[in-house]
Write a structure and sequence with these properties.
The protein has 427 residues and is of the alpha+beta class. Helix content is 40%, strand content 19%. The chain has an 8-stranded mixed β-sheet with strand order 1-9-10-11-14-8-7-2. Strand 4 and strand 5 form a beta hairpin. The chain is elongated and about 110 Å long. The protein starts with a helix and ends in a 5-residue tail after the last strand.
Length: 427
């Protein structure tokens, strides 16, 4: 959501800023709606004074024993016009609100300019491992040979894009989730949250999934619920319509959820196996903070997410998204991409985004500054820490052996009852 004062005072700058995202904001329409709303309010305020005057005239006429029909008719017309103005104001206000809801967040001034993902900027890359003397299998071939993943049966149960993990595959998935949660809670001070996996329309509106992208979510029409595309939605909405205290910020939450997304892409090599799923697991990191601490919080979440990969010794790189590739609500964003040596590709495993006050304005999330003063809109940030599906691909392909086994990274072994290798058909 956008600050109406910025629209009024700097319409050209706002249009140019949104244009960096490739969005052509109808500034003229928004200004016209705002003008009509303010005119209706102003006229209505003037009519209140006239109605008070007419009411006094009626009382004076009756007190003097005169017929007050003329005064009463004048008061009736004023009330009638006031009702018309009130309805006009509500209609225009709703139209303006709905229009602004479709405008994306302004990109951060420091976000690199660009049209699309081809102009994103690699800002960090870990050292690539030395080449091995055997041909690595891709994760799907490897996982199927080990009996730890059954995509055909997952498709039979639900449809394509719904994985079915088996045996040590299921245990490895669970180990990754627990390992990541424990790291963020114990080492980085996040509070664990286990939120609902469905949200109402107000929650989806608050974080920006609605009204622009309903087709990307699974919808339960009977109950007006949406299956969550990410834990960002329920966790950030925990504080919707609240006023927090600055001394309690930042608030840091870590949440495991399953995630559900319709836009899994077309069939092909880039969607094979776990590369693009309708359902996947993720540990999400969410922070609510002040404007002054916002930029530092963004870097902090990035560091916390990449610490998972550092500990597991997975090759990764950090890519800053250009303005044309930023998501609807993000002002600035880093993608963390893991290297999958069997697939031979970089795979996005996390997006770490700063929404600044964009989401907070939509959900009316504010905080009281230290020392008092008018409540301010909070800044919200989140990042995957991480999505397990892409991480699983990188892990299986990185840690496979010439015998087509998989070494379990040492940090995960305590979460798998000491299992150090997946050798095939293990349960």
């Amino acid at each position: 959501m956008h600050d109406i004062k910025r629209l009024r005072q700097e319409p050209g700058a706002l249009k140019a800023s949104l244009g960096r995202k490739g969005f052509d904001a109808d500034i003229e329409k928004a200004l016209d709606l705002d003008r009509r709303r303010r005119e209706a309010v102003s006229e209505a305020d003037g009519l209140k004074a006239e109605l008070n005057k007419a009411s006094r005239a009626i009382g004076e006429a009756k007190k003097a024993g005169r017929d007050a029909a003329e005064e009463m008719e004048a008061a009736r017309k004023i009330r009638e016009r006031s009702a018309e103005l009130d309805e006009e104001r509500r209609t225009v206000e709703e139209e303006l609100h709905n229009l602004l809801l479709t405008w994306p967040a302004e990109p951060d001034p420091n976000a690199p300019d660009g049209r699309d993902e081809t102009e994103n900027v690699v800002v960090h890359e870990t050292v690539m491992p030395d080449a091995v003397e055997f041909e690595r299998k891709d994760h799907l071939t490897l996982a199927e040979s080990l009996g730890i993943l059954d995509m055909p049966r997952g498709a039979k149960i639900a449809g394509s894009g719904f994985p079915l993990y088996l045996g040590l595959g299921a245990r490895l998935e669970r180990a990754l989730i627990n390992f990541m949660l424990d790291m963020q809670i114990n080492e980085h001070g996040y509070t664990e949250v286990l939120p609902p996996f469905m949200v109402n329309s107000s929650s989806a509106l608050g974080t920006g999934q609605l009204p622009k992208f309903p087709e990307d979510m699974y919808y339960v029409e009977r109950d007006d619920f949406y299956l969550i595309p990410t834990a960002e939605v329920p966790v950030t909405n925990m504080h919707r319509d609240e006023i927090l205290n600055a001394v309690d910020l930042p608030i840091r939450y870590a949440a495991y959820t399953a995630c559900f997304r319709r836009e899994a892409g077309a069939h092909g090599q880039d969607t094979r196996g776990l590369l693009r799923m309708h359902q996947f697991n993720k540990v999400e990191l969410v922070q609510v903070t002040t404007e002054e601490a916002s930029e530092a919080a963004h870097e902090e979440i990035l560091e916390h997410a990449t610490s998972v990969l550092d500990t597991l010794n997975i090759t990764y790189r950090i890519v800053e998204l250009c303005t044309g590739d930023l998501t609807f609500g993000a002002a600035r964003c880093y993608d963390i991409e893991v290297w999958a040596p069997g697939t031979g590709a970089w795979l996005e495993a996390s997006s770490v985004s700063n929404f600044r006050d964009f989401q907070a304005r939509r959900m009316n999330l504010r905080y009281r500054p230290e020392g008092g003063g008018k409540p301010l809109f909070a800044h919200t940030l989140n990042g995957s820490g991480l999505a397990t599906s892409r991480l699983m691909v990188a892990l299986l392909e990185t840690y496979q052996t010439p015998e087509a086994r998989v070494i379990v990274p040492r940090p995960l072994q305590p979460y798998m009852s000491g299992v150090d290798q997946i050798r095939g058909r293990d349960r």
